Amino acid sequence: MLPLHYRAVYLAIAPNRGEKAVSISASFYWVASLSQFLIPAFDLKVNPGYKQTASSRLTNEVVSLIYFYMEIIMRVLFIRHAAAADQAAFGGSDLDRPLSDEGRKEARKMFKALAGLYPQPNQIVSSKAMRARETAEIACSCFGRAQRIESELLNPGSSFKDFRKLIAGLPGQPELVVVIGHEPDFSHILGQIIADGELRIDVKKASCIEVDINRICKGELKLMLSPKAAAKLVQ
Fold first, then answer.
1. 166: which of 68, 153, 173, 199 fits an S-S bond (Cβ 3.0–4.6 Å)?
2. CA–CA separation, 185 and 181 (whole Å)
3. Which residues sit opposite 31 in a β-bridge?
4. In terms of Cα–Cα distance, which of 136, 131, 220, 118 is closest to 179?
């Protein structure tokens, strides 16, 4: 059981959201639990009379660290590429498959709607697959002058670890980033962000999933939009 001052802080920053929903809360609990064993040893070496002061100071440092990592730093729009040419009919490399005519039309509809709902993103990042790159081109034409980036870290088969590496390597301090990639990769990545892998979201083609993330790429699901739903919102 945590000491009273740890329990109070833990409850304050981790409202009742379910046992597995907020991994950062679990991380705080683990750090705070460990700290209660470290504090007595630390205090004995300093001075028994300063136990409360040393304990409070370490508590404050732990809380500050947790708040630092919990702070929401970025909004991310996960967008699966639009419909592409049939792989069997195309016959070439999977990375070279282009969007179909229907896919291009669907992507334009989606991004025109999103441009009416969101400010201009700082970056639009896609995998190096042709279908994702073409989707990103359409996004840039609708959003305007957003910086466009291509990254192998979003190529088919990407993982949550790849996503964290991608976010850490983005230039500047972006507040809104669009990432365009593939399934089932996005389902797994979003599951890790939102609920430590305990949740699976089926991301349809050209659909948008909005999440807010903190410094360790954990966060909250804010919005899910299909192309049709997005178009209705801006009518």
1. 153
2. 8
3. none
4. 136
Amino acid at 28: F
Tell me the three state secondary structure of residue 163: helix
Tell me what pLDDT residue 56 has.
63
3-state DSSP assignment of residue 117 = helix
In angstroms, the CA 21 to CA 113 distance is 31
* Partners of 208 in beta bridges: 79, 225
Residue 180 — φ and ψ, nearest 5°?
-120, 120
Q: Which part of the chain is CATH 3.40.50.1240? A: 74-233
* Residue 97 DSSP label: P
Q: How far apart are the first and last CA of the chain?
A: 54
Q: Give the residues across from 223 on adjacent strands.
A: 210
Of the candidates 64, 70, 136, 74, the residue with the CA atom closest to the CA atom of residue 103:
136
Which pLDDT value is given to residue 20? 37
Q: Which residues contact 184 (CB under 8 A, 6 or more apart)?
A: none
CATH 3.30.1300.10 fits 74-233, yes or no: no
Q: Which residues of the chain have pLDDT under 70?
A: 1-60, 63, 65, 67-69, 234-235
**Rounded Cα gap, residues 130 and 234, in angstroms:** 29
Hey, what amino acid is at 17? R
Q: CB-based burial of residue 130 (10 Å sphere; 0-12 exposed, 13-18 middle, 19+ buried)?
A: buried
State whether residue 220 is helix, strand or coil. strand
